Amino acid sequence: MLTGMAALRWLTPRRRSATARSVLAGEASAEAARKSAQSAQDASAPDTGADVEFPVHGDDRAAAFFDLDNTVMQGAAIFHFGRGLYKRKFFETRDLARFAWQQAYFRLAGLEDPEHMQDARDSALSIVKGHRVSELKSIGEEIYDEYMAERIWPGTRALAQAHLDAGQKVWLVTAAPVEIAQVIARRLGLTGALGTVAESIGGVYTGKLVGEPLHGPAKAEAVRALATAECLDLTRCAAYSDSHNDIPMLSLVGHPYAINPDSKLRKHARELEWRLRDYRTGRKAAKVGIPAAAGVGAVAGGTAAAIALHRRRR
């Protein structure tokens, strides 16, 4: 059976089904996550002081998988990343209008139309095309300090630390670019991250994705691929998310948790008696969060913030 890039080359455009793209994206993300974790130095994790209400037992065949947006961090990582890119003049005004329209389509239509999704992906990837991977990683470090560090949920951070203290590995799983996901994981002292993989040759982005954005079923495929590579027993693993889009990932593990759940996930979790945690205030819980449009993938999620900044400066 062909896997990874070999499968991508073999399949013609018409034969690349959504399932095949999900598998490819999952495998690529798992491979990138393992390479990053193997080369990363151990980092000390901050003491949050928050109570963990359930025991996490040490088990070398168990691990924990955390969604990022609105689970570990308030808001969408790609939204904050986009703010940082705009500040560094990666965006131009004409790009902002185009990206804003594409994201508005996803939010208002509530549909993942293939043609519109492809347009959005192409637009997003055009921003980083020709830039070096090392450049984006360096910028990601700065953006984490500027916009993300203060938005980490202490309660979710404590849950992740409980797994680490029990000797288990902890992975972020997100549709955000794998490079920024790895920065966040390292800063939090986690094992590593699974994220959307943008193709690069010679350390330079080509403007293409490997597979598809790590969203929905692709997240589940990435977790499955990583579990196989790490010899994990998924029935002994835990997963955490706020979104019903992550039900495929949550359903893979023996210990699923709904964190700050949206209405659909809350209903699903209650029906299946999954554990729930909500670290938002009542006011925040009632708000509809700003979504990172499912099909955008690589870097265009910050356009709404960029437009707001642009308007304030005019």
TrEMBL record:
It holds the Pfam family HAD. It comes from the Bacteria. GO terms for molecular function: hydrolase activity. The keyword Ribonucleoprotein does not apply. This is HAD-IB family hydrolase. The lineage of its organism: Bacteria, Bacillati, Actinomycetota, Actinomycetes, Kitasatosporales. InterPro entries: HAD-like_SerB, HAD-like_sf, HAD_hydro_SerB1, HAD_sf. Belongs to the HAD-like hydrolase superfamily. SerB family. The chain crosses the membrane at residues 288-309. CDD domains: HAD_PGPPase. It comes from Streptomyces thinghirensis. Keywords: Hydrolase, Membrane, Transmembrane, Transmembrane helix.
